[in-house]
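Format notes (please read before filing issues)

Several people have asked whether sequences and structure tokens are stored in separate files. They are not. Every record keeps both together, in the order shown below: the sequence lines, then the token lines. Line labels are part of the format and must not be stripped during preprocessing.
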Amino acid sequence: LTALGYLSQETGTRRFQPTIRIALLGAWLIEDAGRTQNPSTMMRRLSAATGDMILLGTQQGMNAVYVKIEQATNPIRFHMKQGACRPLCTTAIGRALLSGKSDTEIGAIVRRANAEREAGDPLVSPTEVIEAVRQGRTQGYFLTKGMGTPGAVVIAMRLEGRSDHPPLAVGIGAPIDRIERELSHFVELLRKEVEQAAPRTAG
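Then the structure lines:
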């Protein structure tokens, strides 16, 4: 279940806990997470508005795992398999997830990722990752080009939720020229959906 992304293991206690992927099997659990709408509904709206691939990710170890994907419908498009994992430190979804952590926590994650990297994989600079996360926080979104697929760009934002639930990030994946041409439009679409999905407040 851990390998499939349904359970995660806490580093300190070694205890297992369910991931948001289980939540996606039942809308009632996502509703309980304190969001005003099911992320699947938000993803379908973004897909209809852009025609591009919509990604929903959460952290699993040193990776961002894509727990749900709305595949692109545009003629020129990219494909990603649901459940795929990408490095937490170098992807837009991953950096959006890291944005909820302190610089100290991010640095520790980068160092662990370097220690666990596969033979031949390049080292990642903790300073560069921390600066990239800071920049994303400032501009309100995270963007990476060609990290996983040449010619592809992902723009992502973190979804706010209850502190006792795993964080989520949503992103749009599209060809570089389309993102560059319509960046402000995509940012506004994401921001609107993220704000609508913000946790309910009592009162």
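For reference, the curators noted about this record: The CA atoms of residues 92 and 144 lie 5 Å apart. Strands lie at 7-9, 16-18, 53-60, 63-70, 85-87, 142-145, 152-159, 168-175.
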